[in-house]
Amino acid sequence: MAGHGSVFITGATGTVGSGLVQALRSRDVEVRALVRDPAKAEALRSQGVEVMVGDLDRSEGLEGAVQDVAKIYLITWNGPSAALHAHNVIEAAKRAGRPHIVRQGAYGSERSRIVRDHEEIDEELAASGLPVTTLKPTWFMQNAMMAASTVASSGTVWMPFKDGRVGMIDIRDIVDVAVEILTGDGHEDKRYVLTGPASVSFHDVARALSGALGKPVAYVNVPPEVARQGFLDAGFPEWIADGYLELIADFADDWGDTVYPDVERILGRAGRSLDTFARDFAPVFGGVAQPA
Predict the structure, then answer these.
(1) I need a surface site. Which of 18, 86, 224, 252 has the fewest CB within 10 A?
(2) What's the CATH fold of domain 7-137?
């Protein structure tokens, strides 16, 4: 094992996980990943990742997957089996050398079934006796990409957020924080809430996109039932669609109208702004790449 030891990552092909793999490998950290779909393994292997094919639904094989790793980055999906997946990883870790688990949870209201599952996982980790660091990011700026097609076609962002403000975070800052913790020391038994540098609304998202794209973009608040159908049409399972709407309902009432200092404390810099996000991802919304 190199440096601070190898890292086992669940969800390595997801949005955060894939960025984390790239960042860790750029530092020559040995990475092991578990994938369900063998077709996704080769892209990871090409980055020098040790890939194991398996299923978090079952505990069989997980002890070998976490054997001899120094740290585990535990990401679970937002579906109804998340707590089971985490339980299987936690039990395997307890039997295989008790590595430090860095857990990516969620910062949100427990009205949401998704957040309740995250809290159940955090409670199990707290009782496990394992060294644990918990990251609780709030609403991702990248979730605005769900509106990419309407921004490109009609200059509109349709979301059921009302005028609510939340400390949205760029996923790239979650990755940067995770890398610092996975390659550093002194974070055991700590809990970090990860927000961006400002509490913003979807009116601000539209304003930032307007500036980055050079055209007017307007935010349109839609009723939850309209948003739900949009989520279903986009392929979200019903359980997850309803969980997101439960989460958004409190964000829409300013539940998340706050900014925490943890990103800046860990990275020594402020998190990326909404304007930076909009500029960097302008092509996703039908714009052109902007100079850095």
Answers:
(1) 224
(2) Rossmann fold (3.40.50)
